[in-house]
Design goal:
Chain C: It holds the Pfam family SoxD. Chain C: GO terms for molecular function: sarcosine oxidase activity. Chain C: InterPro entries: SoxD (IPR006279), SoxD_sf (IPR038561). The complex is a heterotrimer of chains A (174), B (998) and C (107). Chain A has two domains: 80 residues, 2-Layer Sandwich (Alpha-Beta Plaits); 75 residues, 2-Layer Sandwich (Gyrase A, domain 2). Chain A is built from four helices and ten strands. Chain A is elongated and about 50 Å long. Classes of the chains: A alpha+beta (174), B alpha+beta (998), C alpha+beta (107).
């Protein structure tokens, strides 16, 4: 099924822990990411930067490759005196881009999450289990999704995705 | 003899001939055939043998409930045993073999068991082979195992692919007959997200065959037209997903259901089967009903079949199971079969109806066709061995005096229908006994309940007891509407069931000679007399009687036999059927392929294997791995001519004499930051961490609140409000989780954030007398003794890498741990190898790491500790603060048993002969235990050959060990014998720390 | 297969996305506690057949600990709530009272 592609990406990523509802944090994160702080479970994207809501006190800032270390420092400077934790986590994660018409089914074969378009609307970040490892994914536009997992299992996850693609569509959401 | 009819066969395509083989012989069938219908069409009635007596078995059914026609399919990696021929679609080139016979299906040595049946009653294996005792294991059991059993397991790995898929639904409908279709249409029109699944290859269920026989219509249309309309309508609904070849096999808590789709049954597919994992708000069970056999003598002779199956073969597949078919029935259903057979041009010499005075359209139609109807009659016994040659008929109400013998070559039997209540019952739905209809049916007032406490399974159609197509339609539509609305089964009126007399043995007063030939379970050879024997021997519980007799324990799980078995048990015990109750219904509904349970978790996807940034180098340089959790860490790097142990010895020497490199990227790295981080660190670790100076490192221990050691590692203070905690490889995730648990659930008002940075960094241990020189060569950071003393750390640019360097040691040598971005780990590793080549730099694995630490007397979590060990047990009391008011485990450690001076404590152990003591060996203590075995007073936790000292070294936990240095003890050896060893100080290497601090 | 809604991220999580954490609302017995209360804290669990308060972590999701009130016999779920409480919230107790009239928390 050649109509689905799986591509490894290497964006910069900054983990930000703090009170996501505080103005200080929201402003600092937006300034660094160039996108507003998202609501619960949402991704807020602007070009190749953006912010993912990960938990009530955790966000993941997406940046172009190589910009994360500097961005984490900048965040901490802006948040001087505000309780927070900002760290470059670009190397701790692996990111895949999945493109194609039935990518929802590629993911539905691996995760217990409901991939139905009404259950997982565009730009909603679903942290879940992918086969036997934790992962997070969101669908940016129908036909294009991104998935984040731990670096050490990147080969395993890539194998899962490729096998799911090889085994073809299910005919469930397409 | 069975044969193909000249005309007819709704399901087959006579223009699509297909070749296949059975036991190596070439056969032919048509597209649309099942393997069973094609074999019957070829005159092959016998398809297998029974489990215990090896009796010849023909198919008794035409569906998934089949107990007899089990065959092996395919070859090699595609071989599958125990496939039911009745639901195996015929495909071109299919290769099938019969099972449980030797040397051939027609002639089988094991059939001698049947002659010995007097000696093989229910539970025979519990009472026949008791003496002499030794014979069981070596004579009886092997003999029984050879002669029992069905298909052989495949000899090769499964070559097929499988997958799983997850989805959710508002309404999941199990069964695509009239009720299921009606339910799907109603639910679909309501806008619900609907999944409709049918196990068979076509929609419409029994209505396709049964409705035309009596001219029944659905909504005023012929059944086939209505079914086509329904399917067309559903296919236009985007909210409805439909699947044929898919059984809903299990219903579980909170609306979770499993379904197995046999993708390859519909034609070539990338995966043979797909397991669906469905979360459904409501589930409609519309799997129909299962026809019951009648228990008469000789009811297992090939050619005796369920009446519904006989007409399915005739009408559906154009197959006559015989030329002259006697029909015997307890209800109306036998009439349908008789009518179908006569219309197909076959002879029905007699229709035996146990009832008297039956009326209705079916009876009238049979009469109009001139069929001879005998009222109040049954079968006394069937004649024939390999196939039916005739029946002797008798009065049902009597002992079985033969009235007449009728020649025939097949018998169609109908003992009534049992609703398929399996899915309803699996998740906890209760049943009620309908005395008039002689069936267990779903009790709508006691359904399986979901998270909100309301019933989430709605039975419909035959599964709910419906007897007519009209009732199935109404009940299905109502269930579908209610399901879409989130309604409950209590609001659903049960359909009308057909009245049915209870005929559990035929004739009613049959003597033992007949009851010994009445089969209940065809596959496991359980007869009426066996269940009666179990009752006489005291098996009053249906669950016990089932296991004692093996009734219902065959691959069909009693779909045909259970009701007859429990009625027989009830009769023998003088109890009514509802008092006897049913056995437990458990998933799966019918067998599913093990491969679909594994799904895609095979090969590289079997389990995740975590890789470090340097793993490619390890792969390319001959690393011999050992699993450490989901990581694979190099145990050693054997060179040409070396085994893994020799390599570890060499690597150990290299660290002691030159410099070694260890990939320590797997060690946990957790950041703890915040205004309350110091306070939190003091709670997490047993020793003080808040007073650690920035730039310094400290070894720390983590206990659980019981006081038992969980993990250890070096903590570095990164800044005023930030600590970096190193954990063991296995501890990275669970220590992070442990910290979060306490922060979230106990001290949620503390201002602390944690993050697991384990995979952000590659970490390399550079250890040995040449370590400093090597790092100096890399350049960029001052790692001198003065600038970087033991237990300090620094940040800088090392050889152009952004690096943190920790001066810490797990080997006893001068040692640095260099941490860089994971993406730069491989480059750092390469740079260290190149710069250190002339210094003798040597990559070392976990075994050398273990030997080095053991020589130095350092403990290893998981070797010296096992979840029942305290810091004091390991002589680490110095790392347990006495000053702190509280820490996790402080109170636990004061419990009397943990503070007991008699506890085993860590000590070194050296064998008197210098050999390596076996790790895990017991230290023999004085006296014997209450059971008369040698008492022990400790055990060996780690043991290695030390290249540094040239003899075996070991660590052990021994009662009062440190107080007994110099004492000689005995340790056990595998396979017997003892070894003498002396208790020594566990710190063997550089006790003063000159090398470590050098 | 239980399905529990995480009160932090709002995901109706599959049981396989959660890790169980045993009984909720235990009171830690730290230094200075009597032996009996330490024993109770470490080992005594109510293990009721019926209404039970238990801890779960949304391990494969937002990582947060939460509590659930569940009937251990029927798997009715009366509600989930954040772990940052010392007592069961009133709305959960009301949901239990409605569906299990007469239920009282065992002493």
């Amino acid at each position: 099924m050649a109509e689905i592609t799986v591509t490894r990406r290497t964006p910069g990523m900054v983990l930000l822990r703090g009170d996501l509802s505080s103005d200080a944090l929201r402003e600092a994160a937006s300034a660094v990411a160039g996108a507003p702080m998202p609501e619960r479970r949402q991704a807020s994207l602007s070009g190749d930067t953006g912010i993912l809501w990960m938990s009530p006190d955790e966000a993941l800032i997406l940046l172009p490759e190589g910009r994360a270390a500097e961005a984490a420092r900048a965040l901490s400077q802006r948040l001087e005196g505000v309780h927070h934790l900002a760290l470059d986590l670009s190397d701790a994660r692996a990111v895949f881009e999945i493109e194609g018409p039935w990518l929802r089914e590629v993911l539905a074969k691996l995760s217990p999450a409901d991939l139905h378009p009404e259950a997982l609307p565009l730009l909603e970040v679903r942290r879940t289990r992918l086969a036997q490892v934790p992962a997070a994914f969101w669908i940016e536009a129908e036909g294009r999704a991104r998935l984040i997992c731990f670096r050490s299992v990147a080969d395993y996850v890539e194998g899962l995705l490729r096998r799911s693609v090889e085994d073809g569509p299910v005919g469930l959401f397409a | 003899m069975s044969r193909r009819l000249e005309t007819g066969g709704l399901f087959i395509d006579r223009n699509a001939p297909m070749g296949f083989t059975f036991d190596g012989k070439d056969r032919g069938g048509f597209g649309g055939d099942t393997l069973a219908s094609a074999l019957l069409a070829c005159g092959q009635l016998v398809m297998g043998r029974s489990f215990k007596y090896h009796r010849q078995r023909g198919p008794v059914s035409c569906g998934a409930e089949e107990p007899n026609a089990l065959v092996g399919l395919g070859e090699g990696g595609l071989f599958e045993p125990n496939a039911r021929a009745t639901i195996t679609p015929l495909t071109e080139g299919l290769r099938a073999i019969s099972q449980n016979r030797w040397p051939s299906l027609a002639f089988d040595i094991g059939a001698v068991n049947a002659k010995l049946s007097k000696f093989l009653p229910a539970g025979f294996y519990y009472k026949t082979f008791l003496w002499p005792r030794a014979f069981w294991k070596h004579v009886y059991e092997p003999a029984i195992r050879r002669s029992a059993g069905l298909g052989k397991p495949p000899s090769q790995p499964d070559a097929d692919r499988y997958e799983q898929v997850n989805t959710a639904a508002d309404v999941l409908i199990a069964g695509g007959g009239v009720a299921g279709l009606a339910a799907a249409m109603e639910a679909g029109r309501n806008g619900a997200r609907v999944i409709l699944m049918e196990q068979g290859p076509r929609w419409g269920g029994r209505a396709l065959i049964d409705a035309p026989l009596t001219g029944e219509t659905i909504d005023g249309q012929p059944a086939a037209d209505w079914i086509e309309m329904a399917v067309d309508t559903l296919e236009t609904m985007p909210n409805v997903t439909m699947r044929l070849h898919t059984q809903v096999s299990g219903v579980f808590d909170h609306g979770f259901a499993l379904a197995e789709e046999r993708c390859a049954d519909a034609g070539p597919a990338p995966v043979r089967a797909r397991l669906w994992r469905i979360r459904a708000r409501r589930i409609v069970t519309a799997q129909g009903a299962i026809e019951r056999p009648l228990a008469f003598a000789g009811n297992d002779v090939p050619g005796v079949m369920l009446a519904g199956a006989v007409r399915d073969y005739a009408v559906g597949y154009g197959v006559a199971v015989g030329e002259r078919v006697v029909v015997v029935t307890a209800g109306d259903d036998g009439y349908r079969t008789a009518i179908a057979l006569v219309e197909a041009g076959l002879a029905v010499p007699a229709l035996l109806d146990v009832r008297r005075g039956a009326t209705g359209p079916l009876v009238e139609r049979a009469q109009a066709l001139g069929i001879r109807i005998e009222e109040g009659r049954g079968i006394a016994h069937v004649s024939g061995g390999q196939s039916v040659t005739g029946v002797s008929i008798c009065a049902q109400d009597g002992p079985g005096e033969v009235i007449e013998e009728i020649a025939c070559d097949a018998v169609a039997m109908s003992g009534g229908w049992s609703p398929a209540v399996h899915l309803w019952s699996q998740a906890g739905g209760k049943l009620t006994w309908d005395e008039g209809a002689a069936m267990f049916r779903p009790d709508h007032a006691r359904p399986p309940t979901g998270a909100d406490g309301s019933g989430f399974v709605l039975p419909a159609g035959g599964s709910d007891g419906a007897a007519s197509t009209e009732d199935a339609l109404r009940s299905g539509a109502e269930a579908g509407r209610l399901a879409a609305e989130g309604g409950v089964p209590a609001d659903l009126a049960p359909p009308q069931a057909a009245p049915m007399p209870q005929v559990w043995v035929m004739p009613r007063d049959a003597g033992l000679a007949l009851r010994e030939k009445m089969w209940l379970d065809f596959q496991n050879d359980v007869k009426v007399s066996d269940v009666e024997l179990a009752a006489r021997e005291g098996y009053r519980s249906v669950e016990h009687a089932k296991r004692y007799t093996t009734l219902g324990m065959a691959t069909d799980q009693g779909k045909l036999s259970n009701i007859g078995g429990l009625a027989t048990l009830g009769h023998a015990l003088g109890e009514a059927i509802p008092q006897v109750g049913t056995t437990t219904f458990r998933p799966p509904w019918t067998p599913i392929i093990l491969g679909s349970i594994a799904g895609s978790a095979t090969g590289a996807q079997f389990q995740p294997v975590r890789r470090t940034p340097m793993q490619d180098w390890h792969d390319a340089n001959g690393a011999d791995y050992e699993p450490v959790g989901q990581w694979r860490r190099p145990y050693s790097y054997p060179r040409e001519g070396e085994d893994r142990e020799a390599a570890a010895q060499r690597e150990t020497r290299a660290v002691r004499e030159a410099v070694g490199l260890l990939d320590a990227s797997t060690l946990g790295k957790i950041v703890v930051k915040g205004p309350d981080a110091g306070r939190f660190m003091d709670m997490i670790y047993t020793n003080m961490m808040s007073n650690l100076a920035v730039g310094r490192c400290r070894y720390g221990l983590i206990c659980n609140d019981s006081g038992f050691l969980m993990d250890d590692g070096v903590v570095a203070r990164l800044s005023e409000d930030t600590w970096l905690c190193h954990t063991t490889t296995g501890g990275a995730e669970h220590i992070h989780a442990h910290m979060e648990e306490w922060l979230q659930t106990e001290w949620w008002d503390w201002q602390v954030y944690t993050a697991n940075l384990t995979e952000q960094f590659a970490q390399v241990v550079v250890a040995g007398p040449q370590a400093r020189k090597l790092l100096d060569r890399l350049g960029g950071m001052d790692v001198s003794r003065e600038a970087m003393p033991f237990m300090s750390w620094a940040e800088g640019s090392l050889h152009g890498f952004d690096a943190r360097v920790f001066r810490i040691s797990f080997s006893g040598e001068v040692s640095y741990e260099v941490s860089v971005r994971a993406s730069e780990g491989a480059e750092l590793w390469q740079a260290l190898l190149e710069e250190g080549e002339d210094l003798g730099v040597t990559p070392y694995g976990t075994e050398a790491m273990h030997i080095l630490r053991a020589e130095k007397g350092y403990v290893m979590i998981g070797e010296e500790s096992d979840g029942t060990i305290t810091p004091q047990d390991l002589n680490l009391g110095w790392a347990v603060s006495k000053k702190k008011a509280d820490f996790i485990g402080k109170r636990g450690l004061t419990r009397s048993h943990l503070a007991d001076p008699e506890r085993p404590r860590l000590v070194g152990l050296r064998s008197l002969d210098g050999t390596v003591i076996e790790a895990g060996a017991q230290v023999v203590g004085p006296g014997v235990t209450p059971t008369g075995q040698n008492a022990t007073e400790g055990r060996v936790t780690s043991s290695y050959h030390s290249p540094t000292f040239g003899h075996g070294i070991a660590m052990a936990l021994i009662r009062r060990g440190p107080e007994r240095l110099g004492e000689t003890v005995e340790v056990t050896r595998i396979g017997g014998g003892r070894q003498k060893a002396v208790l020594v100080d566990p710190v063997l290497y550089d006790a003063k720390g000159d090398r470590l601090n050098g | 297969m239980l399905i529990l809604t995480c009160p932090y991220c709002g995901v109706a999580a599959d049981e396989t996305e959660l890790s169980p954490g045993g009984e909720a609302h235990l009171h830690r017995a730290g230094p200075g506690s009597e032996d009996a209360s330490v024993e109770a804290y470490l080992y005594h669990r109510s293990n009721p057949k019926g209404v039970h308060f238990e801890r779960w972590r949304h391990a494969y999701g937002c990582g947060k600990w939460f509590h659930s009130a569940r009937d251990t016999a029927t798997n009715d779920v009366f509600g989930t709530y954040p772990a940052q409480v010392t007592e069961t919230p009133q709305n959960i107790l009301e949901a239990i009272a409605q569906r299990r009239p007469g239920w009282e928390r065992p002493q």
